[in-house]
Amino acid sequence: MYSIGQAFKNICKNIRLSLASVATISACIFLFCLFFSVIVNLRNIVTNIETKVGITVFFDEDLSDSEVKTIGEEIKSRPEVKDIEFTSADDAWESFKKDYFEGREELAEGFAQDNPLKGSSSYSIWLNDVTKQDEFVQWLQGLNGVRQVNYSNQAGSMLTGLNNALLIVSLVLIGVLLAVAIFLIRNTVVISAEFRKSETAIMKLVGATNSMIRAPFIIEGVVLGFVGAAIPLAAIYFLYNYAVTYMQKNFTMLSDIFSFLPISEIFPVMAVTALLLGVGIGFFTSLFALNKHLRV
Amino acid sequence: MIEINDVSKTYENGTRALQHVDLVIDDGEFVFFMGKSGSGKSTLLRLLLKEIDASDGDIVVNDYTLSDMPRSYVPKYRRRLGVVFQDFRLLPDRTVYENVAFAQRVIGKSTREIKESVPEVLRRVGLSSKYKSFPNQLSGGEKQRVAIARAIINKPDILLCDEPTGNLDETTAKEIMKLLDEINSQGTTVIVITHSREIVNSMDKRVITLEKGVVRSDVQHRTGI
Ligand SMILES: Nc1ncnc2c1ncn2[C@@H]1O[C@H](COP(=O)(O)OP(=O)(O)OP(=O)(O)O)[C@@H](O)[C@H]1O
Ligand SMILES: [Mg+2]
After folding, report:
1. Do B89 and A198 touch (CB under 8 A)?
2. Do B75 and A296 touch (CB under 8 A)?
3. Interface ipTM above 0.95
4. Residue spans of chain A under pLDDT 50
5. Are strands B2-10 and B56-61 parallel, antiparallel or unpaired?
6. Which residues fall inside 5 Å of ion ligand 2, going by CB?
7. Backbone phi, then psi, for A63, in 5-degree steps?
8. Looking at residue A295, what is its pLDDT?
């Protein structure tokens, strides 16, 4: 209890440097949270694209319906397949007609007897784990009678590339800020310790233990780290919710794929990580700073 | 009991502060240390506090050999000692009460215990009425009484005083010495470093004189002899 009171006294006496420490650690953790949100959401979008678009398999023209059916069964039996849907050549033609001859159906009449899309029967396949997509596509292509496999790895891989670039940039930025934050917390704690040198000297003389002498300064560091994490977390919480509502209002048509994850899904992990980060930095920085400065 | 067996102390810079000191101080004794500036008196005190370690020989306090004492035990050992300095070493931003209570807070005593023992010890040093004052509102003698109160509140076995009256006028110095004598009469071993012949001559105590790090004399002073 005594140590906690002393820690707060330290912070108040040293208010400018304390604020500077809190500000840098806040900036650091704010960036962490920001990148964390963006990266997690991008990854979610990649998953959405891959799962929603799915894989389409076309067959050799001379394949009989029953052979196509057998391949369908085979595909369905694979564990990574979540869903599979058959589109017959006639279905394909119907939907093509609807798209291209809308309102002028008579133009398509000429093809009535002979489906021009013969052989374009296909399966649409959705996987339950998109990371297995490449492997699965390879397997499909190796099947007898499979003519073509369409799948969208482009959007996915582009976003994944973006994601990785972002990850690197964020790690570098966070690393730099982290170094500054550690430096400032260290200084704050060391100055507090210097400031109270005579007091610590008396503490030693009356038989205070090392941990007793250090506790106020360590608590000081931890409090700085904690506050430095709590502020950006609150900010991110509000900003994120604001962004989500804004997106929902203004970009409804994209919401299927480019939807934000709800805050409740990412916040717990983010908050725990950020707080651990802040408190950990505060604790270890002051601990190591004091190892040099306060010895019984 | 304090046994100092053939102790020498050479500082890192080569200064030989103490050389082959042999002394025994019994429980409940009152001992003066005298000697010119630089003769090694404070060095001896710092050795007893285990602020520094002897270069040679060993010191045994209450059956603990200081050179063998693990670092982690030092705080506990120091709780058995009280220390008073010439410059008082009070915390300027705290009241008399808080300065004395400090010695108990830092060793984890409960507020209830502190509330009982601080007024009692302030009464003992004659400062009951000043408990709310800050150090800069006190006279030198009063400041030293606060420092003594802080030194004895944890009921130490040994009270170490490094020139406790060095900053005080003669009358005040005599009062402080009287207080130390009272504390000694209640069983605490008291060791006082002083430059004042006057004070030493006014009391019938053992007087050890150091000279250039060596014990020059060790006598029992008798007034009027
Ligand atoms: N930390 C130190 N490093 C090096 N030399 C020191 C140190 N402390 C004291 N000395 C030297 O050791 C010798 C004894 O010093 P000490 O402080 O014990 O003397 P003293 O008897 O207390 O003197 P005074 O009466 O002036 O207080 C002196 O020569 C001093 O300069
Ligand atoms: Mg001295």
Report:
1. yes
2. yes
3. no
4. none
5. antiparallel
6. B 42
7. -75, 135
8. 60
Ligand 1 pocket, CB under 6 A: B 11, 13, 15, 17, 35, 37-43
DSSP state of B112: H
User: Under DSSP, is residue B211 helix (H, G, I), strand (E, B) or coil?
Assistant: strand
pLDDT digits (tens, 9 = 90+) for B147-169: 999 999 999 999 999 999 999 99
Question: Amino acid identity, residue A84?
Answer: I
Cross-chain Cβ contact A212/B106 below 8 Å: yes
Give the pLDDT score at A50: 66
State the nearest Cα–Cα gap between B201 and chain A, in angstroms: 30
pTM: 0.71
Print the SS3 string covering chain A. Answer: CHHHHHHHHHHHHCHHHHHHHHHHHHHHHHHHHHHHHHHHHHHHHHHHHHHHHCEEEEECCCCCHHHHHHHHHHHHCCCCEEEEEEECHHHHHHHHHHHHCCCCHHHHHHHCCCCCCCCCCEEEEEECCHHHHHHHHHHHHCCCCEEEEEECCHHHHHHHHHHHHHHHHHHHHHHHHHHHHHHHHHHHHHHHHHHCHHHHHHHHHCCCCHHHHHHHHHHHHHHHHHHHHHHHHHHHHHHHHHHHHHHHHHCHHHCCCCCCCCHHHHHHHHHHHHHHHHHHHHHHHHHHHHHHHCCC
Q: Which of residues 106-135 of B touch A (CB under 8 A)?
A: 106-108
Distance B194 CA to ligand 2 centre (A): 9
